[in-house]
Recover the amino acids of this structure.
């Protein structure tokens, strides 16, 4: 075998590739000799946490993954469920956390591109995207606040820039800000596609002598070592890892998408795999490994974007927009013709063998020879120790309600409601979702900014698909098991409040350093919570991703299990939203409100000082919120004109009576029009033409900077080329300095506990009530509790409400109790009867009507009330986020 890549200093090489001495012993046992540099790089990538799940797999095996409607569970590029009429939904959520922290625009953009490739690799056309993004203390008036504003803007631009250019609508998501993300932001991207159920393509390479083809973009040095980088923690030098961030080009990916779908329509291939993490290494080994085959690859045939690339770089580069295909023998020219038509590279670079080994060549010289099964099936599995964190006992000993009562004693319920509506956790995020095209493909029924989960119609079978994404991070910090249960339940509840029956979930498990026993305890408990919830709620896990090492220096993120629930409604005309619809309709509460303040938004705001007498009005003024009925707000003796002047109620109500259309095609535009009109009048979909025009420039700039970094990194010594040494990046060195000090904004008490059996009964009640048109709109009790749920329903519907409820304590109006939903009903008596059959509490709250949100709370010792105009509430809700961003340090 060729000696070009022989290793002279094995200890240094092992350290550079993050391989342990035990790993090395296992490699020696597998090969029967010392590995060369190419082989060591392959072991390093395939045995990384990112690719092998070596720390997490023992817990993931416990997830329920099957049901009669599940076509493909975990283990493929994405999960697949049957949605009727001969069609299937293909979906997955995945993280791109580390790259997005290092280079937010490119990291987020390629995260979107990567998850879309996972979908269309299986033969499905992507039709919808969601995202869950998390940042640090953006409100701080220092470098941390400035940094996270910049990260937010870069990530949102990257998501929008790539998704918009691909022509795939981004229809929902969630954004969260916590101190634990100061050193590690999270970018979780979800994509769903539609395919014929009998025409799903899998990642396999079988048939002795069948050709292996490389298609898509050329290979460069960007992304080199990305899988290994994503399997390590950050420190103050991590910004020097910019060369490990991939560079994406959505225009090329769009061509690749169309070329692949054209290819799938012909009987030409055996299997196909995206070149994602670890690039050509992972795609080739996984395809052959799943099929029990071997493979020969001739790396000098790989299309190269840069000169003088070597075998190590070609195997480990994570350049984007590339696929590996196992074709039927004799189909090569037909496949080439398709990719030529779309102006994409297509080269035969190898063939399938029966050896069970991966053999790599450069011309006639063999440069690597590795058995495949030990790499893919027998990667080292770690049984890391677990230990309950010391903080658990400390935070659970605290009573958040007592603290809240102290902080809010001098405030009226109306004051509290205003502050909650304008808080960064609750206020509308139009600044974010308006940068995403949510209506392209003309299937969107309900998108971001319209309440709960998002919905698209499926033209192929006449049904509607709903999806919702959620991760209750503050609950997961207090109680990882209960928090994970709530994540599954709430994601599903956001669907059922629309009339969508949840069928399956995809998960993205974001955690800290697994070498910390306390982090592994959090992970173990979260997995157990997901398992229990999925079993009871009958929503199996069909796909997912694990992202560990989300740690900077010694600070780990909170446990963040992001759950996406996907469900089905047979008739799109039966779905509902969260807006009050008709004056005089009755309002009811399904479920019972308890004292659940641990990890609540109200607790967080109190810790931020939002209710202190010195800063109460100043807090509102800084964020541009109206306060009371006055057009002026005062802070420290100064009079400030309120910026809230937009006539929230100026537009005509979208809920005028209409005659039911007789056909599906004429009814759908009405639903879409209603959904669009319920956005605030300040909303306008910001056409992303500038992003479309500038994205190539940004890509070229990034690509150029990465290539220069890679060139600086190269030396004549092949050892140095591949050692993954860090490269200085002076332009971003300042951003690497992360404030990891302990924040006072820390959840206390315990997370709400959820009765999963009752949650399932609630789901069944909601689905039956929506289908029978007994429930005309619904909103779960979530962040901000019952009071904010009612306010949002009034804001979205531009209709007020008159509500009266008896609560032992007035603060319970903002308690975040689980398994509670506010509904508008056409017949309360029938609803009450239905609720009794499902053994769910049903309480009459009041009725819809007027222009004010009026809530009478009969609490001890003195009854209190909220009387807030829908106009003022809407202005606070819709305008505050922009003010959070404008408050620059």
């Amino acid at each position: 075998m060729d000696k070009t890549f022989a290793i002279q200093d094995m200890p240094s090489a092992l350290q550079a590739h993050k391989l342990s001495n035990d790993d090395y012993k296992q490699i020696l046992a597998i090969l029967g000799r010392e590995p060369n540099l190419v082989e060591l790089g392959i072991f390093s990538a395939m045995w990384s946490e990112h690719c092998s799940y070596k720390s997490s797999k023992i817990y993931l095996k416990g997830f329920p993954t099957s049901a009669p409607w599940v076509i493909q569970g975990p283990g493929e590029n994405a999960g697949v469920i049957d949605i009727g009429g001969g069609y299937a939904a293909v979906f997955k959520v995945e993280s791109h956390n580390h790259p997005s922290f290092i280079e937010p625009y490119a990291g987020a953009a390629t995260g979107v591109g990567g998850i879309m490739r996972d979908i269309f690799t299986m033969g499905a056309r992507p039709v919808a995207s969601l995202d869950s993004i998390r940042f640090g203390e953006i409100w701080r008036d220092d470098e941390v606040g400035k940094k996270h504003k910049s990260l937010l803007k870069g990530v949102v631009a990257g998501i929008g820039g790539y998704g918009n250019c691909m022509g795939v609508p981004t229809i929902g998501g969630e954004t969260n800000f916590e101190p634990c993300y100061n050193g590690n932001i999270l970018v979780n991207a979800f994509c769903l596609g539609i395919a014929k159920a009998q025409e799903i393509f899998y990642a396999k390479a079988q048939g002795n002598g069948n050709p292996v083809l490389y298609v898509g973009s050329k290979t460069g040095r960007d992304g080199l070592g990305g899988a290994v980088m994503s399997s390590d923690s950050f420190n103050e030098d991590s910004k020097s890892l910019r060369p490990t961030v991939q560079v994406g080009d959505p225009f090329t990916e769009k061509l690749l998408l169309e070329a692949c779908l054209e290819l799938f329509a012909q009987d030409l291939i055996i299997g196909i795999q995206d070149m994602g993490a670890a690039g050509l290494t992972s795609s080739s080994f996984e395809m052959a490994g799943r099929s029990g085959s071997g493979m020969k690859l001739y790396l000098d045939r790989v299309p190269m974007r840069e000169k003088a690339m070597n075998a190590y770089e070609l195997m480990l580069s994570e350049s984007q927009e590339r696929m590996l295909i196992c074709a039927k023998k004799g189909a090569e020219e037909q496949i080439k013709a398709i990719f030529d038509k779309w102006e994409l590279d297509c080269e035969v670079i190898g063939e399938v063998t029966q050896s069970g080994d991966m053999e790599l060549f450069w011309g006639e010289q063999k440069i690597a020879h590795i058995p495949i099964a030990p790499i893919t099936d027998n990667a080292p599995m770690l049984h890391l120790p677990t230990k309950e964190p010391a903080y658990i006992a400390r935070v659970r000993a605290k009573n958040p309600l007592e603290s809240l009562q102290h902080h809010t004693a001098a405030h009226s319920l109306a004051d509290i409601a205003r502050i909650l509506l304008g808080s960064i956790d609750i206020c509308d995020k139009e600044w974010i979702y308006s940068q995403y095209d949510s209506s392209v493909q003309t299937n969107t029924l309900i998108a971001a900014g319209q309440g709960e989960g998002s919905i698209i119609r499926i033209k192929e079978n006449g049904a509607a698909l709903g999806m919702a994404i959620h991760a209750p991070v503050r609950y997961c910090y207090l109680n990882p098991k209960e928090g994970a249960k709530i994540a599954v339940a709430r994601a599903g509840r956001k669907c059922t409040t629309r009339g969508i029956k949840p069928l399956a979930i995809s998960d993205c498990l974001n955690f800290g350093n697994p070498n910390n026993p306390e982090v592994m305890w959090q992970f173990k408990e979260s997995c157990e919570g997901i398992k229990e919830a999925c079993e009871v709620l009958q929503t199996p896990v069909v796909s997912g991703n694990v992202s560990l090492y989300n740690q900077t220096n010694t600070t780990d993120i909170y446990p963040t299990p992001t759950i996406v629930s996907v469900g089905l409604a047979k008739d799109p005309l039966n779905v509902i939203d969260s807006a009050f619809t008709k004056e005089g309709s009755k309002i009811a509460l399904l479920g019972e409100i308890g004292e659940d303040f641990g990890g609540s938004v109200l607790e967080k705001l109190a810790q931020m000082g939002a209710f202190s007498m010195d800063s109460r009005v100043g807090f509102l003024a800084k964020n541009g919120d109206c306060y009371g009925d006055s057009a002026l707000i005062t802070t420290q003796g100064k009079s400030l004109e309120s910026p809230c002047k937009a006539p929230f109620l100026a537009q005509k109500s979208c809920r005028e009576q209409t005659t039911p259309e007789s056909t599906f095609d004429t009814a759908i535009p009405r639903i879409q029009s209603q959904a669009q009109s319920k956005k605030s009048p300040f909303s306008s979909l910001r056409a992303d033409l500038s992003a479309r025009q500038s994205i190539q420039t940004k890509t070229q700039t990034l690509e150029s900077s990465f290539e220069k970094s890679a060139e600086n990194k190269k030396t004549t010594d092949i050892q140095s080329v591949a050692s993954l040494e860090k490269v200085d990046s002076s332009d971003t060195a300042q951003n690497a300095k992360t404030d990891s000090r302990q924040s006072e904004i820390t959840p206390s008490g315990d997370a709400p506990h959820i009765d999963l059996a009752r949650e399932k009964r609630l789901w069944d009640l909601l689905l039956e009530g929506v289908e029978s048109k007994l429930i005309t709109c619904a909103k779960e009790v979530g962040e901000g509790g019952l009071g904010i749920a009612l306010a949002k329903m009034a804001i979205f519907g531009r209709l007020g409400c008159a509500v009266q409820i008896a609560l032992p304590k007035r603060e319970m109006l903002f308690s975040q109790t689980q398994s509670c939903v506010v509904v508008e009903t056409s017949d309360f008596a029938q609803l009450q009867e239905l609720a009794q059959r499902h053994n769910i509490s049903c309480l009459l709250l009041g009725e819809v009507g007027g222009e004010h949100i009026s809530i009478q709370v009969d609490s001890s010792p003195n009854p209190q009330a909220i009387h807030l105009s829908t106009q003022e509430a809407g202005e606070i809700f819709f305008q505050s986020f922009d003010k959070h961003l404008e408050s620059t340090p």
